[in-house]
Amino acid sequence: MKKLSIKLGVLFFLIIFGLMTFMFFFLHMEITESRVEEELQSLQARGNSHRAVLEKHLDQETIDHVVLMESESTTDVVILNRAGEIMGSSSPSETLRKYLKVPNSNIPREGQVVEANWEEEPYISTVSPIHINGQVSGYVFMFENTESVHSLMKGLNEHFLIAGCVSVIFTLIIIIFLTKGMIKPLISMKEVTYQLSKGNFAVSLPKTSDDELGDLAKSIEVFANELSYLKQQRSEFLASISHELRTPLTYIKGYTDIVKKRELSEEDRKKYLNIISEETNRLSVLIKELFDLAQMDQNSFDIEKERIYLNHFMDRLEQKLAPAFQDKERNILFECEENLFLMADPLRLEQILINLLDNARKYSPDGSNIKLKAWKYKNSIHITIEDNGKGIPEKDIPYIFNRFYRVDKSRTRSLGGAGLGLAIVQELVHAHEGEISVTSTEGKGTIFELIFKGE
C-alpha cells in the first residue's frame, strides 16, 4: 500500500502542480501586460496634459515650465517643433535621441505609443501632437525609464514565488492527508481479503463514506457473507450427499448379505431382491441428479431451443404420465391456448414439467385434481402446475429450491427423492432465461408458476 500511496501522492502533486504552474504563468502574464499598459496610458495622459497647455501658449516660457515640471518627476519630456528640432527637454537629449523621430504619418489627436518594449529597451515612450489652428506645430514626447517597470516586475515575481512556495507546501500537506484518507480504508480492505483467503469469513469493515470506496467495502462484506454461506452450504451439501448415498448402500449391502447367507423362501427372496432393486434405482437417480447439477454448475450442459407448440407437447406429456396418475387415482388436467408456442429445449422442458407434476402427484391425496395450464400474457408465456394437496408451510417456501432441502424433515422413504429435484428445475428454468415462483397454503394446495420470454 506504501507504493500505491506514493504513486497517488506523486500523481496528485504533478496534476495540481501543473495546474498551479499554468495558472500562475497565465496570471503573471496578464498582470504584467496590464501593468505595462497602465504605465503607457498614464504616460500618454501626462503627455496629452502637457500638449493641452502648449496648444494655448506655445512660447519658451511655457515650454520651460513644462520641462521644469517633468525634471522633478520620474518621467521625462522632450518637446520638438514641426521640423524635429528640440525646443525643450527635461533630460540630456543624447540618451533619448534615437526615439526622437518626427512621425511620417498623421498621429491621432490622443497620441500614440512610440516604444513599448520594456523588457529590452531602457525607456518606454509616447508622443502627442501639438495642434495650433488646425495644423501640427510640434510634438510632446514622454519617456519613462524601464528600470521602474523592471523593479515592479521583480517585486511581482517575488510575490508570485512566495505564493507558489506556500501553495506547494499546502498542496503537499493536503495530498498527504488526502492520500492517507484514501489508503487507510484500502489497507483495511487488504487485511479483510487476506483473512478471507485464509478461510476466515467472519470479518467486517469500518463504515466508510458513501462513495466508491464505501461501495467497495460493502461489496467485500457481501462477498464475505456469500463465502460464509457457501462454506456452510458446502458442509451441508457434503453431509447430505453422505447421508443420501449411505442409506441406499446400507440397504443394498444389508439385504444382499441376507440373500447370500440365509436360506430364504422364494417369496422372501423376491421381496429382498425387490428392495435391493428399488434402492439401486434410487441410488442411480441420485447420481444422475448430482451429475446434472454438476453440469449446470460448470455450464457444460447444452440448451438447444426449438419452437414447441404447447398443445401437442402437452398431449404427448399426458400420454406419458397418464398411467402413473391413474395408478395413484389422481386426475391430471391440461389447459392450453390454441397455437401457443415456446422457444425451449423440449427434453429439458419435459424434465421440468415431469418433475413438478410428479411432486404434485406425490403430495396430493387420492382422487385429487392436478392442473397444468399454459397461456400468453403480453410478451411472456406462463405455465402453472396447480394441486390441491397438503401444501407447503410458509416458513419452508424460501428454501424449497435449495439442494437437499426437504419440507418433510422425517425423510420418509415412501415419498422418495433426495431434495434435488426442485434445485434442478430452478437451474433449468434459469438456463432458459425464465423465472419460477411458488405460492402455497397448507391444507389447500400449491401452485408453481413458470414464466418464459415469448416472441
TrEMBL record:
| Gene3D superfamilies found in the cross-reference section | 1.10.287.130, 6.10.340.10, Histidine kinase-like ATPase, C-terminal domain
Reaction catalysis annotation = ATP + protein L-histidine = ADP + protein N-phospho-L-histidine
- What EC number(s) does this enzyme carry? 2.7.13.3
Domain of life per record: Bacteria
Where located? Cell membrane
Pfam families xrefs: HAMP, HATPase_c, HisKA
Residues passing through the membrane, by range: 6-27, 160-179
Topology relative to the membrane: Multi-pass membrane protein
Please give one Gene Ontology molecular function term for this protein: kinase activity
Database matches in SMART domains: HAMP (SM00304), HATPase_c (SM00387), HisKA (SM00388)
Where is the Histidine kinase domain positioned along the sequence? 240-455
**Has UniProt tagged this entry with the keyword Transmembrane helix?**
yes
HAMP domain spans which residues? 180-232
* UniProt keyword annotations, A-Z: ATP-binding, Cell membrane, Kinase, Membrane, Nucleotide-binding, Phosphoprotein, Transferase, Transmembrane, Transmembrane helix, Two-component regulatory system
Mind telling me what this protein is named? histidine kinase
